[in-house]
Amino acid sequence: MSKFSIFAFEEDVKQGFITIQGGHRVGITGEWVFENGEVKYLKNISSLNIRISREVLGFGKKFINYIYNNGSILNTLIISPPKCGKTTLLRDLARIISNGEPPINKGFKVSIIDERSEIAASFHGVPQLDVGLRTDVYDNCLKSKGIILAIRSMAPEVIICDEIGTKDDFESILIAYNSGVSIISTIHGSSEEDFYNKLRMSNLNTNMEKIFKCILVLNNRNGVGTLERVKKI
User: Fold this and answer.
1) Residue 56: inside a domain, yes or no?
2) How many domains does the chain have?
3) pTM as predicted
């Protein structure tokens, strides 16, 4: 899986997983070695958990009308537990928005901040999955850094990222909002309250919750990608 060069994945391994060609994620565990309170390396690997990434073209069509309004893309937050299709949805929304597929009448310039290489599944810098004609991908890049880099250098109209949750993530989204860039992101959770709890834990003294004009809550009650709730602000 590491192409016989596990050291090339050293930083990924410290996070407990590696992402391989195709956007598939391999979780790893074993004996963890710490130094000064930080993970130094992993040895004696005992278990692997392989999560297969699947591209589902058209998956985002039933959602696009919620986030597209009067020629603009609404700042959108997708709240979802694991295995409910949030990354698959992000990927297809990027494709639809970038290509300008109906009901969108023109393509938008999109930047994907792909911290875990799962959205576009880039290999040697080339996306292996369809994320649209007008999409730039920041592969293996921290969300908090990539959002700022994209705003400074690529003039995106829409920024897409997965699994926000840290104070740095929220602060960079606030910068994007103040720059006039639309944001579409996901967050782990089962309800809006999980989002608000993460904001409180981040100690952000802003009206962050007012940035997102559309909130989609997913579950797998009736299969992957079941839309449980839509909230427009």
Assistant:
1) no
2) 2
3) 0.87
